[in-house]
Amino acid sequence: MSEDLKQYLRKAHDYLSIAKNALSTDLPVGAITPAYYCFFWVVRGLLYEKNIVTKRHSGARDMFSLHYIKTGELPQRFSNDFSVLFERRQIADYDLEGDFPTYEIEQVVEIAENFLMYVEEKYA
User: Fold this and answer.
1) Residue 79: which of 122, 49, 111 has the closest Cα?
2) How many Å apart are CA 65 and CA 63, to the nearest integer?
3) What are residue 40's phi and psi, to 5 degrees?
4) Rounded distance between C-alpha atoms, residue 110 and residue 112, angstroms
5) Sign (positive or negative) of CA dihedral 23, 78, 11, 88
6) What's the pLDDT score for residue 96?
């Protein structure tokens, strides 16, 4: 694993910690955005490994799919997970009615953590 990827993954770990801490508060919905950013920083690190830098979240999603999912380097489920987290974050951040049951918020955090762990193991 390159030093650059390690830095991206450290940032992802920071966001995962924030998400997990938010789960134990009176506002667990606050875990959704940092869980998304955990996933996002892992994706950015992977893209950086291939000298790809994007300016928009949608660009990161597209490039991740093109260079990691469609090539078979990573399983399709991670593209699906990225879409789910992106959608949940959009709702949590921008929708006045954006509330989720705790179990669903816990699933979002688990998705981010599983992706981070998978990438750490695969690229160690």
Assistant:
1) 111
2) 5
3) -60, -45
4) 5
5) negative
6) 86
| φ and ψ of 27, to 5 deg | -125, 70
Range of 113's domain?
A: 3-123
CATH number at residue 88: 1.20.120.330
Counting the structural domains of the chain, the total is: 1
Q: Which amino acid is at 90?
A: Q
Blockwise average pLDDT, block size 10, the chain, 124 residues: 95 98 94 98 98 95 98 98 97 89 97 99 92
Question: Whole-angstrom Cα distance, residue 36 to residue 88?
Answer: 8
Query: What pLDDT is recorded for position 1?
Result: 80
Structure pTM?
Answer: 0.95
